[in-house]
Description:
The chain is mainly alpha-helical. It has three helices and no strands.
Amino acid sequence: MGALAAFAHFLLVAIKTRDPDNFVTVRLDLGRFLALGLEFQLAGDILRTAIAPTFAEIGQLAAVAAIRTALNYFLGREIKEEREELERRGKPMR
């Protein structure tokens, strides 16, 4: 759903204006949706493993959790940096 919303936003920005700075908000929206999706996937994996865990499943969960946490951290940092850049330029956030 987030990807569809970001794509719709992309089309609106592409039709209304071709200013590259306006596409940054599209990237920020998509990034927020991706970060939220990663959190939901991690929660689902934790719940699935909590039912009948084996040591192999716990190890896999730990690896997946570490990877998703790192992805989420760097994605969040990128979003923060882009927002700060937009604020410095004086561009309005949607």
